[in-house]
Amino acid sequence: MVIKRYQRPDMARIWSDQNKYQAWLDVEIAVDQAWNKLGVIPDADLQKIEANAHFEVADILAMEKITKHDVVAFTRTVSKSLGPEKKWIHYGVTSTDVVDTAYGYLLKQANAILRQDLKELAATVANKARQYKDTVMIGRTHGVHAEPTTFGLVLANWYSEIKRDQERFEHAAAGVEAGKISGAVGTFANISPQAEALVCEKLQLRSQEISTQVLPRDLHAEYIMTLALIAASVERFALEIRHLQRTEVREVEEFFAPGQKGSSAMPHKRNPIGSENVTGLARVIKGHVFTALENIELWHERDISHSSAERIILPDTTEILDYMLHRFTKIVQNLTVFPQKMEADLQITHGLIYSQRVMLKLIKTGLSRETAYDIVQPLTAQVWEQKCDFRQLLEADPQIQQHLSKSDLDDAFDYHWHLRHVDEIFQRVGLSS
């Protein structure tokens, strides 16, 4: 299980032994209720089971040391709390009917938390995007200054991705919120499809249309892959913060609380530890994808090679992602932004970020693209080498002056040109005020 450092209480409770065995008991009782509705179990026996069936985790674990089988240990422990009606516990079902249906039940609980986590992150990013919609900054490609953008557009891009994450999540969540009560090889030999439908209705799960002894594991693989995609999104966003917090950039900074320490050795340090933390945890989740894919291929109608792995990856992935989403939401909420530094950094390359605008204006005068490019590029190389002012070189160049006026260059060096479609982009993303 995930270490406590990366557990949040509500998600940890879902994957506790107590809640797991309670889910198993809920499935067992739902099966007996179905048998009762189908006329097999008498009302009196069902009432006693509903009133008295219970367990202690310690008793189950002690029994498992003898049985070497966790479900048998569970059913025998529960049976000790009952009288003759105990004969109906686990009647007509196999272990995986209980375990897999309980997994669907537990994942449904986990998904409610993750769904809210995603909703809160989306709302937080949306608010920040609107706040910084017009805050100009340099856009970077390959880590190199490219052309002006806004910090709001950076955040709007995140928001759009989170919306896709939410759509993918709902599809994958529906896949694993499933039950199967179809018996040893999925043929309903000792129980009926009607009973399965009743059990799933009681637990608010869907009935898997066909199963073997287990639910198809492509459902769980898709689910883990989807959670990994969400983790990868958070990692991408965190990487941007880590870059923007570098000393040479320092356009944003994770909130640094009074009394917080950045280094045991260097008192001046303020490190993007939260963003680095979620980056590392995303790697753990992405590693679980391989295991989930390997779990798809089982022998014939079932083996248990997937079981040991799922005891780890299902709780761990949901718990880690819950932690990541919560922590990163707080990072975004409290992010310190330095708009003046963003605007100042536009000047670092001495005006080179406007080279494309200059080239396009030359093309509009009738020059070929190749000719315009070859006129501008040598001047940009001179700026890189000599750290001189790009506009001054343009104003001194005879070929440029032959084609472009002062007003042309004024327009080419106005960053507002690059931002004229920001409102439209925000509308397309769904962030219009």
UniProtKB/TrEMBL annotation:
GO terms for molecular function: (S)-2-(5-amino-1-(5-phospho-D-ribosyl)imidazole-4-carboxamido) succinate lyase (fumarate-forming) activity; N6-(1,2-dicarboxyethyl)AMP AMP-lyase (fumarate-forming) activity. GO terms for cellular component: cytosol. Transmembrane segments: none annotated. Pathway: Purine metabolism; AMP biosynthesis via de novo pathway; AMP from IMP: step 2/2; Purine metabolism; IMP biosynthesis via de novo pathway; 5-amino-1-(5-phospho-D-ribosyl)imidazole-4-carboxamide from 5-amino-1-(5-phospho-D-ribosyl)imidazole-4-carboxylate: step 2/2. Keywords: Lyase, Purine biosynthesis. InterPro entries: AdenyloSucc_lyase_C, Fumarase/histidase_N, Fumarate_lyase_CS, Fumarate_lyase_fam, Fumarate_lyase_N, L-Aspartase-like, Pur_lyase. GO terms for biological process: 'de novo' AMP biosynthetic process; 'de novo' IMP biosynthetic process. Residues 350-430 form the Adenylosuccinate lyase C-terminal domain. Its EC number is 4.3.2.2. It is an enzyme of class 4 (lyase). It catalyses: N(6)-(1,2-dicarboxyethyl)-AMP = fumarate + AMP; (2S)-2-[5-amino-1-(5-phospho-beta-D-ribosyl)imidazole-4-carboxamido]succinate = 5-amino-1-(5-phospho-beta-D-ribosyl)imidazole-4-carboxamide + fumarate. Signal peptide: none annotated. Pfam families: ADSL_C (PF10397), Lyase_1 (PF00206). Belongs to the lyase 1 family. Adenylosuccinate lyase subfamily. This is Adenylosuccinate lyase. It comes from Bombilactobacillus mellis.
